[in-house]
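Render GNAT family N-acetyltransferase in 3D.
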Amino acid sequence: MYISNRNIGNNKNYTLRLLNDEYLEEIQNLCNNCSDYYLLDKGSVADSDAAQKILEALPNGKTYDDQFNLGIFNKSNSLIGLINIIKDYPYSNVWMLGLLMIDPSERNNGLGKLIHKEIVNIVKEENANKIRIGVLKDNINALKFWNSIGYKLEKETEIDRGNNIIKKVLVFNYSV
């Protein structure tokens, strides 16, 4: 898969890059800036090792060759967003979008839709036919976004976030 300095669509203002440990500080800053997500998810701001957790988290049965952590960089070369996507999960030809996090200062300007189009392009290039995502039921803005671009509800489930925190999650699919 070609990712290195890949433009997002025809827009040369944003590029995608594979993330690794060299970007830990920038990823952690992004996590800290996106405290709204962490407050919804865990009831507290991002842990001091949130960046490391993003890079290391893997679903059962998957390897790091199956997972892509992509940084969204602006024209100033600042990390303004992050995509975590896992190929062939939970089924063959389905890619799981584990996380799409955009800095609050970059939201509500069409960037999310632009990023989604690029994710669709990547998934198509890899011959997959579906994108799957789990959205916290409490995340009203995210639910509006995913519904607005054509994601279809598959089911409602629960996840255990530890410390007696059980979250309701809506699972959506998008056919590419």
